[in-house]
Design goal:
alpha/beta, Rossmann fold, 20% strand
């Protein structure tokens, strides 16, 4: 039986690959998007179990992705974890106030991200 489906959204291919490897090693089925617009499209079409998204990206930011996912009845149930190099308390609060289920600042420990995703999925 395949594991949970995770949508990873980041415009940095190195980070995207690093995240993908870590989640694949833990049994996740990894879906990828390289910007917020593609992320919204993939969320709607693929219905992942969880989304992990960077904030600063071209076309649509992670905050815009979050707003679209959380206001669309077909995707509103999907937990979203935001990742950002912006680590000020105001940035974290803005992400959580916008509806993110978790917020991690870069750099982060992959094990911490995995633990937070597992908790959201109640694995």
């Amino acid at each position: 039986m395949p594991g949970p489906r995770i949508l990873l959204v980041d415009d940095d291919p190195v980070i995207l690959d690093l995240l993908a490897v870590n989640f694949e090693l833990e049994g996740f089925v990894v879906l990828r998007a390289t910007d917020g617009a593609e992320g919204v499209d993939r969320a709607r079409s693929d219905q992942p179990d969880v989304i992990v998204s960077d904030i600063m990206m071209p076309r649509r930011s992670g905050l815009e992705l979050l707003a679209e996912v959380k206001t669309d009845p077909t995707t509103a149930h999907i937990p979203v974890v935001l990742l950002s190099a912006k680590g000020l308390a105001a940035d974290v609060r803005a992400g959580l106030d916008a509806g993110a289920d978790e917020f991690l600042t870069k750099p982060f420990e992959p094990d911490d991200l995995l633990a937070r995703v597992d908790k959201l999925l109640d694995r």
